[in-house]
Amino acid sequence: MDRKINIAVIDSFELFRTGFSMLIENAGYSVHSSFKNGQQFIKQLDMNNLPDFVFIEIEKPESLNLQTILLLKKTYPSIYILALAIDYVKETITQLTSCGANGFIQKDAEPGEIKSAINTVLKKGSYFPKIDKGRSRLS
User: How far apart are CA 96 and CA 58, in angstroms?
Assistant: First the structure.
C-alpha cells in the first residue's frame, strides 16, 4: 500500500486552515501540520518528518511567505509548494515561479481542484491553472 501524501497548510485564518485541512483529509490525503504563518512552520519543521506538499497563503504580508517559499525550495527542494490566494495578478505568478513555487490555487476554487493540483504537480511538476478573468485581476 502506498503511503498517504502529507500536506502542511499555512494560512493566517484559523477557520480557513481548519476547513482546508478537512478538504485535504476528505480527498484522501493526510494533514501533516497547520500553521498561521511561514515563520512558525519553519521553526517547527522537522527534517526527519517533512511534508510532501505545502499549501501556503500569499496574502498579507505577502513578502514573508514568499521568503518562506524561497527558503523551503533552497533547503528542501523535494517539497512541492502550492500558493493559496484570493486574487492573482501577473506579477504574483511571476514572483511565485521565481521563488520556486510549483503552482497556485485560488481560494474560491472548487474543492476537487485540490486533488487536480496535487496530481498535476506529481505528473508535470507544476500547476498553474487557466484563470477565470472574472475571478482575478489578470489582463
Answer: 9
